[in-house]
């Protein structure tokens, strides 16, 4: 069996063009969620921002990953997406550059995330993954699962590094 790449080694690009790796969030509990601006689930940005604010002092981050693969519901540029999230939902958590989460051009981050559990493609916008401080994917929640649902917050609280 081939050794898996550490999630922390995976390169990512922020919406402002800054290139980095997931190692920027090593030692933290991270929720990675594919986001879209024109989806019926877009109001989940509010709950994601509240989670980030509530738990950031205890080592928790939310990382939004804009994706236009689901009925073209994220059509804007990276700058437009970032402006929308900040102005409409007061988002202060990091957003990555728009990327594919499924298919032949899927980002390596999603290739790794989708190995968790039974695996499988991302179903829709706002699918959520939790990565622990050691870089292991520990939970996957479907798109319609409210980010502030007790099932989600209990996993967060049980895995906060601080």
Automatic annotation (TrEMBL):
Highest taxon of source: Bacteria
Gene Ontology biological-process entries: cellular response to oxidative stress
PROSITE patterns listed in its UniProt record: GLUTATHIONE_PEROXID_1, GLUTATHIONE_PEROXID_3
InterPro entries the UniProt entry points to: Glutathione_peroxidase (IPR000889), GPX_AS (IPR029759), Thioredoxin-like_sf (IPR036249)
Pfam assignment, any one: GSHPx
Keywords (A to Z) from UniProt: Oxidoreductase, Peroxidase
Active site residues of this protein: 39
Record-level Gene Ontology MF annotations: peroxidase activity
The keyword DNA repair is annotated on this UniProt entry: no
Record-stated family: Belongs to the glutathione peroxidase family.
Name of the protein in its database record: Glutathione peroxidase
């Amino acid at each position: 069996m081939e050794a898996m790449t550490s999630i922390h080694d995976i390169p990512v690009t922020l919406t402002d063009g800054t290139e980095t790796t997931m190692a920027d969030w090593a030692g933290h509990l991270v929720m990675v969620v594919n986001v879209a601006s024109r989806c019926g689930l877009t109001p989940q940005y509010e709950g994601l921002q509240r989670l980030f604010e509530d738990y950031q002092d205890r080592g928790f981050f939310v990382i939004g990953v804009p994706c236009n693969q689901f009925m073209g519901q994220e059509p804007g540029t990276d700058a437009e997406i970032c402006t929308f999230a900040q102005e409409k939902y007061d988002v202060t958590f990091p957003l990555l550059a728009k990327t594919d989460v499924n298919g032949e051009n899927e980002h390596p981050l999603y290739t790794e995330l989708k190995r968790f559990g039974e695996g499988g493609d991302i179903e829709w916008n706002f699918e959520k993954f939790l990565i622990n401080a050691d870089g292991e994917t520990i939970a996957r929640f479907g798109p319609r699962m409210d980010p502030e649902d007790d099932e989600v917050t209990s996993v967060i609280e049980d895995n906060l590094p601080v």
